[in-house]
Amino acid sequence: MKKSSPDQIDTVLAQLWQKNLPTIRERLDLLDQFASAASTGTLDEATRVEALGIAHKLAGSLGMYGYQQGTEVASKMERILKSPTPETLVTLSSLAVDLRKSLADGL
Question: In this structure, how many other beta carbons lie within 10 angstroms of the beta carbon of residue 95?
Fold first, then answer.
């Protein structure tokens, strides 16, 4: 098996990032909507579970693309959505903003 150089790996990751960017943007938009619902107390159980899945996927994938801070923020959101309280749910909006900021150069 031929070894890949770091430059080749970076190129492949950049291509994958571009390919997956529409999905990532869609997930960010959905998290914004879910965070807004959470801050107004209108986040129902099905939506919470969907938001949990999205946060989990972002937490798992962003680090691979070099967005470690994004992974950390998405992980925080995931933890909140796993065991939500009224106090923690209201923090989702600011975390959604932080998540976008952490990805700003890639969006």
Answer: 18
